[in-house]
Amino acid sequence: MTGVLLVLTTIPADQATTLARQVVEERLAACAQVQAVADSIYWWQGTIQTDREATIVLKTSDTVIEPLITRIKALHPYELPEILVFEAIGGLQAYLDWVHSQTFFEACNP
Question: Cα(110)–Cα(88) distance, rounded to whole angstroms?
């Protein structure tokens, strides 16, 4: 167990960079990657929806996962945002250490 987590969320493409930058600036994620824009097709409230979305992959520490999820929900425009958390089961130790050193939660964060 590394204590490093990958968090995936999808968001309207025109809002992805803003959300990604915000959580990195607030030190809730060490790194954010905004992936290529894609057409998402999904069921919502009984009908099939289609939206242009970007996927954001965040690298964070398990010590800040709950504040990060709370912040994503606050910044996200969707009523029910996709937020999935995956555990990094291994990796380059220096990189894992870097993720931990770059993420923390202070009560002053919004």
Answer: 27
Q: What's the pLDDT tens digit per position in 9-37?
A: 999 999 999 999 999 999 999 999 999 89
Whose tokens are 């915000």? That residue is 22
Place of tokens 């994503």: 72
Token representation of residue 86? 């995956």
Residue 108 has pLDDT above 80, yes or no: no
Q: How far apart are CA 86 and CA 62, in angstroms?
A: 10
E strands in 13-109: 31-34, 38-44, 47-61, 84-87
Cα–Cα nearest to 85, from 54, 110, 62: 62
| DSSP string across 61-88 | EGGGHHHHHHHHHHH--SSS---EEEE-
